[in-house]
């Protein structure tokens, strides 16, 4: 059995290295499902590429998918090979997802230089699927020059994108209270650039002024970066070229100040944490008796968690299994 698995792994890796798009799709499916073959392949391929990773976040209806579609066009004009990971919300009841972002990017489906993959969030509160970083590593290894990661769009819990992407773009819209929500949620602190999309609607200039005022009071980002604000109308493409140049300027800033390595390390930390969280979710689904004891007041949540983790009853958070 081990020999068959190794043979299958070598065959998949060889086709992947040759640029077979079907091998990439197969690898992504294996990784997303947590299959051992996918994990083994990922271990061999990790760190092979160095793409420019852009995270695109913002509230639902801000036009993230349409804006991403336009940014893909800009990247292709510059000869870049583009990968897109679109994280769609999962149903808390069925676990299913609409995976509808591809619909808004259909113009690219025949372009061999663009690969779009939808992922289900599977209950991840940070707006990212647990397998997102693993999929991102595979796209990098496949040789994409730029990768866009578009998140679910769930507001205050959507700060995880800053731990995964090299550059984080926050998309806001006028007349929807987005700016105020951003200030409340602290999402202002994660954005490297701001796009005020649907700028042709009333209130666009007001949002820009509010953002400028808020940014004047916030501390500068690492290396002294000051987040710029770009008015855009994704439906027509207005302002998108300038926004793309802003993304490129931030990447050059990261290179100039040797900040990319710290980004990649934080991405790996997020990936490990995601695996631990997913493991914990599985354990709690299987531990009905322990959960029932918590509901009855026989165990505290902390005692139950320690029991599931195999920790000693009196051990602290930093101690390992007994």
From TrEMBL:
It comes from Thermus composti. The keyword Nucleotide-binding applies. Keywords: Chaperone, GTP-binding, Hydrolase, Nucleotide-binding. It comes from the Bacteria. The keyword Flavoprotein does not apply. The gene is meaB. SUPFAM superfamilies: P-loop containing nucleoside triphosphate hydrolases. PANTHER family: LAO_AO TRANSPORT SYSTEM ATPASE, LYSINE/ARGININE/ORNITHINE TRANSPORT SYSTEM KINASE. Belongs to the SIMIBI class G3E GTPase family. ArgK/MeaB subfamily. This is Methylmalonyl Co-A mutase-associated GTPase MeaB.
